[in-house]
Write a structure and sequence with these properties.
In chain A, 29% of the residues lie in helices and 18% in strands. By secondary structure, chain A is of the alpha/beta class. Chain B has a single domain, classed as Glutaconate Coenzyme A-transferase (3-Layer(aba) Sandwich), CATH 3.40.1080. Chain B is built from ten helices and 15 strands. In chain B, 31% of the residues lie in helices and 23% in strands. Classes of the chains: A alpha/beta, B alpha/beta.
Chain lengths: 247, 286
């Protein structure tokens, strides 16, 4: 059962981290695929919220943007954007904020960047106001850097109790799901450590894809491979999405 | 202290789009064209480009293709925003070219988070000088935007982020309908459009259609009374390639195609000449 891509196992493993009880603030791209895969498999009652104001939405195809009509058409209710950020996010109603990596990184000096990336969007407040943060992004030394040049969204900062010292009372990133492994914070230092490695991936490969000396949890497991059902539902969802957006 | 500009005696006028833009938007104005993915006022933005407006300060949470086009055509000198990409596709190449290379002119960026922009529009509509939020904690954004400051709660002593209210000279939005009295109806993903109009001194609302009466509707539909709007213009499909709930879908294929069109200056300018500049004003006003 190795007939899957790195992106597929990343999405499947990210989906497994979600439960029916979760109220999830969904980022666009990989997080959106994972959240909807969870909804279409083991967590049909999960509440998905997109920052466009759509609450408890059940899209049939993945949205290209954060505000596709599909999200509003299938939502329980749609609120204004100020209400979304004030009452629902800042109000502490969200259990999981699910972010993609490109939303939390940036390259180059600010005033005259070589590459101007889009910016933080909703992420600066999502990162501190959801009970927990899951992050999903493909692993490479360019994306997994030792020290960010510009922080749009706070994680564990310098580690330890840094969040508490800033007056943040939420947990921050508790899972980082990549195409190679799953990382979780060390209970004390809060540094992200490898907790499980996807089938067929070596520790050397993992280190080569990471811009800092990796730490491994005391017991590292092998990630269970995607099941036929998980892959089938994901591929159908992505095929429906491709057809819808090509029109 | 600035107060709401549309007095109770004001009344929206139905004007051709070209006349509405001439009437409401001047060189150097601060302009907020809002619509969170949905109901983005493309037809009005194109008319601003045709009329050659310059030195605008543009406000928008998500600049989207509409501001990529305005920036690439040299209409803007400053951009106040919170997420500047092509949603689900990648970069806004004209925005990047302006920031990275100063083409066609320099563009000053004032960068916020979505939560701060949404709060700042809300504060503008509420006639407050600033908005406060639990925001920006632990981020580097306050270091590059001097307008991100803090305020202490007089009751608990807690430190909160503060940003200036957004009070643009002009708000431009697209809506589904206006009725015979000049009231405006919008629904679906309603974004920050109501806040933007109520925060601005003047406003232009383009609509899919003019109707005699709105007819049966939810009592909670978003309605902007005629006396809160300066000018209304009929612009069918005026939000395309964005969409209008109940009328047409988002043209995701065009958003994907824009990446290639806007990547090079020549292909961008050719597209703008063909699809925006060459259009006679009458055609647009229908």
């Amino acid at each position: 059962m190795s007939d899957y891509t790195g992106n597929e196992i990343m999405t499947v493993v990210a989906a497994r981290a979600l439960r029916n009880e979760d109220v999830c603030f969904v980022g666009i791209g990989a997080p959106s695929a994972a959240c909807n895969l969870a909804r279409l498999t083991h967590a049909p009652k999960i509440t998905l919220i997109y920052e466009s104001g759509t609450i408890a939405t059940r899209p049939d195809v993945l949205p290209l943007s954060i505000g596709d009509g599909e999200l509003c058409d299938t939502a329980l209710t749609t609120v204004s954007v100020p209400e979304m950020f004030r009452y629902w996010l800042q109000g502490g109603r969200i259990t999981i904020g699910f972010l993609g990596g490109a939303q939390i990184d940036r390259l180059g000096p600010y005033a005259r960047p070589k590459v101007r990336l889009p910016g933080g969007g909703g992420a600066p407040e999502i990162a501190t106001q959801c009970a927990q943060i899951f992050i999903t992004m493909a692993q490479s030394p360019r994306a997994f850097v030792d020290k960010l040049e510009f922080i749009t969204s706070f994680g564990h900062g310098e580690g330890g109790d840094h969040r508490r010292r800033l007056g943040i009372h939420t947990q921050g990133p508790t899972k980082l799901i990549t195409d190679l492994c799953v990382m979780e914070p060390d209970p004390v230092s809060r540094e992200m450590c490898v907790a499980s490695i996807h089938p067929g991936v070596t520790r050397e490969q993992l280190q080569a894809a990471t811009g800092w000396p990796l730490k491994f949890a005391s017991s590292v497991t092998e990630t269970p491979a995607p099941t036929t059902r998980e892959l089938g539902v994901l591929r159908e969802l992505q095929e429906r999405t491709r057809r819808a957006h090509a029109a | 202290m600035q107060s709401a500009s549309q007095g109770a005696r004001g009344r929206s006028m139905v004007l051709p789009l070209a006349a509405a833009v001439e009437e409401c938007i001047r060189d150097g104005d601060s302009v907020a064209m809002e619509g969170f993915t949905h109901l983005i006022p493309f037809a009005a933005g194109h008319e601003v480009i045709r009329q050659g407006r310059k030195r605008l300060t543009l406000y928008r949470m998500t600049p989207d293709l509409i501001y990529d086009q305005l920036i690439g055509m040299g209409a803007a000198e400053r951009l106040v925003f919170s997420w500047g990409g092509n949603p689900g596709v990648g970069s806004l190449h004209r925005l990047r070219d302006a920031v990275e290379n100063g083409w066609p002119g320099p563009l000053e960026l004032v960068e916020h988070s979505h939560a701060a922009m949404a709060n700042a529009y809300d504060a503008g509509a509420a006639n407050l000088p600033f908005a406060m939020l639990r925001g920006y904690v632990g981020t580097d954004l306050p270091g590059v935007n001097p307008n991100i400051r803090s305020v202490r709660c007089p009751f608990t002593g807690e430190q909160l982020a503060a940003v200036p209210a957004i009070r643009p000279e002009v708000a431009v939005i697209h809506a589904q309908k206006a009725d015979a009295e000049g009231n405006v109806l919008l629904e679906g993903i309603v974004g920050v459009q109501k806040q933007a109009v109520l925060a601005a001194r003047r406003s232009i609302v383009t609509v899919e259609e003019l109707v005699e009466d709105f007819g049966p509707r939810s009592p909670n539909t978003v309605i902007l009374p005629a006396w809160t709007v300066t000018a209304i213009s009929v612009a069918p499909r005026g939000a395309h390639p964005s969409y209008a709930h109940g009328y047409y879908k988002r043209d995701n294929g065009f958003y994907i195609a824009w990446d290639k069109i806007a990547r090079e200056r020549d292909s961008f300018l050719a597209w703008m000449r063909e699809h925006v500049l060459r259009q006679a004003k009458q055609q647009v006003n229908a």
